[in-house]
Design goal:
single chain; alpha/beta; 13% strand; 2 domains; two-stranded antiparallel sheet; Rossmann fold
């Protein structure tokens, strides 16, 4: 709760410092800036609504027990919980493959659309340690997801997977310090990315037969259909 309050206060302070309480005429905003502003307002509204709900619940039950330790990312014995990895992939075979590989490094939060990913990023109680995002999603661009992801998580690992990369997209990815992985790619590339992001493998490798089956049935089909 204290972390959430601090984040919201920083947002308000930054907004006040930028605008100094002066209304900005609509003609001063480009279409891209207006879109970004609406997304920011929506995210802050969700965060404020969640904060209000939690605060009212605490005030209604002032003697309730402390929250579960796992909710704050710390286990009861003082050991950090498994890291959270966001996956945004709208093609089911590729999504299953990424989920299988990433689950060896942490807890996977799987989404299929920009809207779903924004819902995760808008939840200020969720901490993310890495994100693996497809570029072309059915409701928009994965670039928008990684821009918001980097705004919230400055040091977390970010990876864009794509079968078709434009110069414009490559420039945005450089700005948000995201790695790029072009389809098709070997499964070990995901492990290498997550390990370099500070998320070591925490479980045994799948059997050779399982890896081969996943690679043949999912990876190649996913690359062909979601490129």
């Amino acid at each position: 709760m204290q972390k959430t309050l601090r984040m919201l206060k920083e947002c308000v302070d930054e907004a006040n410092g930028s605008f100094k309480g002066v209304d900005i005429p609509s003609q001063d905003l480009s279409f891209e800036q207006a879109t970004e502003a609406l997304a920011m307002v929506s995210m802050l509204q969700r965060a404020c609504s969640q904060l209000e709900e939690r605060a009212r619940g605490i005030l209604a039950a002032p003697h309730q027990q402390a929250p579960d330790a796992h909710a704050s990312g710390v286990c009861q014995l003082g050991v950090a919980a498994r890291p959270n990895i966001l996956i945004v992939e709208d093609h089911a075979p590729m999504g299953r493959q990424l989920h299988t590989l990433a689950s060896l490094h942490g807890e996977v939060i799987a989404t299929e659309t920009v809207e779903q990913a924004f819902g995760v990023l808008g939840d200020w109680t969720v901490n993310l340690d890495a994100a693996i995002v497809d570029l072309h999603l059915r409701d928009g661009s994965g670039l928008d997801v990684l821009v918001w992801f980097r705004d919230r998580f400055r040091e977390a690992g970010a990876l864009m997977v794509t079968g078709q990369l434009t110069a414009e997209a490559e420039e945005v990815l450089r700005d948000v310090r995201a790695e790029i992985l072009e389809k098709p790619f070997p499964s070990d590339s995901i492990h290498q990315f997550l390990e370099l992001a500070g998320l070591p493998r925490q479980g045994p490798l799948p059997s050779l037969a399982k890896v081969a089956a996943l690679h043949e049935t999912d990876m190649q089909d996913a690359a062909a259909q979601s490129a």
